User: What shape does this take?
Amino acid sequence: MASSNIYVGLEIGTSKVCMVVGEVRSDGAIKILGVGQHPSAGVRKGEIVDPETVQTCLHDALARAEERSDVEVNTVFLAVTGSHVKSLNNRGIIRVADEQMEITPEDLEEVKKIARDVPIPKENGYIHSIIQHYFVDGQDKVLNPLGMLGQKLEADYHIIHGVKTRIQNTIKCVREIPLEVEDIVFSPVAAAQVVLNREAKNEGALLIDIGGGTTDYICFVDGAVVASGCVAIGGDHITNDIALVLKIPLARAEKLKVSHGSASLKGVEAKEIAVEGESGKTVEQELLNQIMNARVNEMLSVIAEPLEKDGLLPKLGKGIFLTGGSSLMRGIDEVAADLFGIPVQKSGSASMSGPSALFENPQYATPVGLIRYAQLLDEQRPKKGTLSKLGQRFEKIFGGGK
Amino acid sequence: MIEFNEADIGEIPTDAAQGVKVIGVGGAGANVLDRMALEGSDDARLLTLNTDVRALTTSVSSDKIQLGATLLKGMGTGGDPSLGRQAALEAVDEIREAVRGNGMLFLCVGLGGGTGSGAAPEVCRIAREEGVFLVVFATMPFSFEGERRMTQAADALETIGRYANAVITFDNDRMGELIVPKDGVTQAFAAADKIISQSIRATMNVVFRPGIIRIGMDDLLSALDTDDSRCLFGYGLAKGDNRSLEAVEQALKCPLLDRGKLLNEAQAVLVQVAGGDTMTLYEVQLVMEEVTKHVGSGTQILFGTGTDKRLSNSLSVTIISSIPGPDSGSRVMPEESKEESGPVVSLGAAPAMAASVAVAPSAPVESVSPLAQAIDEAEEVPSLSVEDAPEPPALEMPEPGAPSEEDDDVVAIPAEDSGEEEDSAVFEPIGEEVEEEQPAYSPDTIPISPILSEAAGEPEDEESDFRNPIAQAVEEASGEEASGNDVDHVEAVTDSSQKITLTRMVSSGNTGRIKTRAPEEGGDASGPVLPPTKAPSLPPEDELEPSEEAKQQQEMLQLEPTSGKGRFAKTDPTIVDGEDLDVPTFLRKK
Assistant: This one.
């Protein structure tokens, strides 16, 4: 086990709490060891509103995950989302000291610090600062300027930030389990790790993760994150709409949505659907679809608007990837394709080895993505040379022996 | 260009150049002064004020005043602004003497410490009382110096802003990045001081240098005219064949400008090109073309040019501008700390520019229609009302305007009751949703005149709190002005101070709610947002005799609290483009 690492991803979603235990082999392959999930309660629009209830669900998910994977979970990577999460792009510029010329790691740190120094509201904290690319003395899109000669170093960063206290509340909730939170990750950033491959990121792709309470998106162009965000509308809203318009209870609306509903208005059969449990009450398929279509259309256009304004849509060579539980909805890809005018595909996490193909289900994109994210993070960390790597390995062995 | 009639626009006479004094307060201020002295100050006399006698003796400026000689016995203040203030008060006569008779004062100060934050506001007050045109260069502390010093600095800045005609702030945090991080610490601080002293010098030059196209104080003010602004400043000086381009490049390279990038965001940019007799029109044109490249299309360019024999065959380019500070957004939000900073601009501008009068008519309109908004931006209210001042009728306007603008009679109830109670607590038990509305509405009611008289009795303590600074400031402002308007001003003081107390009272009630509600409420009163409360809108006459009927109305509302949002009724609303997305799209679009 010395050469593999075990990571745990935790997503406290609006519809489910999901914990995925994954093993990263030395060759980089990920094996899912176990999944624990539990229907979520006390979460609204991606944010915890009732910590106690959430903790109950969390305990349950944890127990299942530990049982199935036979791993004792101590630390987790936590996915966060919520409408308070915002993003922006900023460029940092420094001048490299004259006598030095070569760009050093300190310079990169410095330029990152400057790029991060953007006016975000005082109550907000940074979640991610993702490098897009560097410019050295005006030279475009330098990927790794380390050791290059130059006087002026610029770096474009994509900065994701959110309200500190809201994020801390989520972390606190997890810590009280008790589980240590190793890092927090904005949900679509995690999901993108598994849904989008390198090719898609390079050619440009938009990932839309439609969950229960929120819809998160992240947009890649030229291999770099150019936009991301969260809209606090999700599958729950669709259910809610159906319930309110048809005046039926939420549970029945949910059933109706899953078993009969479609977001598409094309080729609708003129038929009446019986509402389960309500004797004699029927709903026209067309009406149901109209309700869903209106909501899905609006939801996607909220995402499309800013991207269109920035002229990003034409740059998305690979089109749109829909994921998340609500992307299982019928017709949603059609609606998205019409709205964005670019190809759309439904997609879960691809190519994982594991006990079952279950995890290719789009519902698990984010938690599985967390594992991949953890792996990437770890790869980046020990870049100090073989010696220290060796040292770390020893440390791990001895640490494990204790 | 023909000379301005300076007296009319409150400008200092050009021949007062010898009446320019640069004052450094506290350690940081003294450092800047020393730097200026080292570089050879032009015409201005330098005055250092400090509590610490040792620092004072090492200062090279021509005049020195020791603050708090008996209070502090030549020691520093130990970072306590109240000590700094007392020390300044002790030396008030000397300061007044030193300030008096100057046409213009530049005051540089490092805020955050005791002497700077404590004494500088006092010096500003004195300068203001003496009717001296005052420009303050304030340095904000590094954020690593801690929250406490930050607050002290912010507090001092507010007070300074009230007295000064223009305030230019330098953020030490930003200074840090201007300088190559590996520079020695002395070098770094010297560079920071240099930037400030250069700014002062350039500002003086810009204003006093005789010009073919002259730049006046009014131009300078409008270039700096954003409250809570961050000053952008660039200065370049070059000789030789390619001097125009080199100078402009140097100016843009100035760290505060961030290679001209920040100019994009500026509202107005002031550019002065100066040179010896050899300067050609073509060179000026080149410079301006270059500058224009960096400036947004909508930006106002205030241009000036002049010749100065001292420059001989070199050419100088000065760029001054301001953009909203990096944390202006966040500073707006918490508490009413910004309440005072509203007047910064208006007071500064009032004597100098007729423009502020032009603003006035629009102000009342703003304060009438989306009142919820006005409260939301509580800090703006005082400034608006100060501007309202010259036009007493503005205060009557809300009366006829109100019923139509929010066709909801719920408004009227709090008007009667909360006028005395100062709180809408009476209604709390009625129902959640209704209760939530209350604060959003009650602000509307308050400016609606009748309460003004009633409320005046009760929040007296608050009133006096607020009256002081603004009354003073307005008095001073009016003192400077030609008079005649005096009566208006005095009236305005009473009215506006009431207004302030009222708005404050509201904002203390339920600020968070107001903020989230405000956009939907104020923006458009169209139905979908809160159908139940809006729907049963009664004819406006009810507003005059609300009590019974309206109360019933409220209870009815409570019966059907929040249809239309279903399970999201109790969550934070998701509002995009003014639409509440929690309400089914299907129902909204129908």
